[in-house]
Amino acid sequence: EDKVVQSPLSLVVHEGDTVTLNCSYEVTNFRSLLWYKQEKKAPTFLFMLTSSGIEKKSGRLSSILDKKELFSILNITATQTGDSAVYLCAVASVSNFGNEKLTFGTGTRLTIIP
Amino acid sequence: DTGVSQNPRHKITKRGQNVTFRCDPISEHNRLYWYRQTLGQGPEFLTYFQNEAQLEKSRLLSDRFSAERPKGSFSTLEIQRTEQGDSAMYLCASSPSGTTANYGYTFGSGTRLTVV
């Protein structure tokens, strides 16, 4: 069964700090790894990673994938209170029926203290 | 197009009642997914449609659950004889086929179900 594990489960830091969120996975037929930010409602897409070692950046957020060691990290620099959310890691894989689906981790709850 | 739309946003029902949720995906997306998310957990896959065909169902989807996507547009998820364990957020997501590589899946805001 496909498995995605995120750590830490929760993190509390002060505004301006840098944080690193971790995601490890065990899936068959890996296709891509995705990061989402979830506040009170729908997860919103952050990054999709398909190749090892290529960093994706968007403002203060960046992410990288290691397909050999089966993990990804999400970095947030100069954190702001608006970064407080649950960050979800998901892996897209092809099921035994040939369909793509997402398997999510439980998320990391990030709280930024002003 | 304003994204993936789900209705209702909240539903409170008594145990044993039937409920139906609706999802309107982004119009050009032919893939549609239903996920369930309980408190403190990540979303769990329930079922997948490509156009109007339901191609895969999770073992989480008991026989009390049924989903449809007539004409390959909107989808409905029905839960019959609801139980307290069905209380969760039900999320719908859509994506275009073949190009999820760049934009991932777009999620709706979800329907929060509370069974009392």
Structure summary, number of beta strands of chain B? 11
Query: What's the average pLDDT of chain A?
Result: 94
Radius of gyration of chain B: 14 Å
Put simply, the count of helices of chain A is 0
Q: Percentage of helical residues of chain A?
A: under 10%
Largest sheet of chain B: 7 strands, mixed
Poorly predicted runs of chain A are none
Taken in chain order, the helices and strands of chain B follow as EEEEEEEEEHEE
Give the termini distance of chain B in whole angstroms: 35 Å
Q: Which outline of chain A best applies? A: globular
What does this structure look like?
The complex is a heterodimer of chains A (about 110) and B (about 120). Chain A has strands spanning about 5, 10-15, 20-25, 30-40, 45-50, 55-60, 60-65, 70-75, 85-95, 100-105, 110-114. Chain A is mainly beta and about 110 residues long. In chain A, a hairpin with a 5-residue loop joins strand 9 (about 85-95) and strand 10. Chain A is globular and about 50 Å long. In chain B, a hairpin with a 2-residue loop joins strand 5 and strand 6. Chain B contains 1 helix and 11 strands. The mean pLDDT of chain B is about 90. Chain B is mainly beta. The chains are: A mainly beta (about 110), B mainly beta (about 120). The interface of A and B includes residues 32, 50, 101, 102 and 103 of A.
Give the secondary structure arrangement, pairings included.
The complex is a heterodimer of chains A (114) and B (116).
Chain A: E1 3-7, E2 10-14, E3 19-26, E4 30-38, E5 43-49, E6 56-58, E7 61-66, E8 71-76, E9 85-94, E10 100-104, E11 108-113
Parallel strand pairs in A: 2-11
Antiparallel strand pairs in A: 1-3, 3-8, 4-5, 4-9, 6-7, 7-8, 9-10, 9-11
Chain B: E1 5-7, E2 10-13, E3 19-24, E4 31-37, E5 44-50, E6 53-57, E7 65-68, E8 75-79, E9 88-95, H1 100-103, E10 106-107, E11 111-115
Parallel strand pairs in B: 2-11
Antiparallel strand pairs in B: 1-3, 3-8, 4-5, 4-9, 5-6, 7-8, 9-10, 9-11
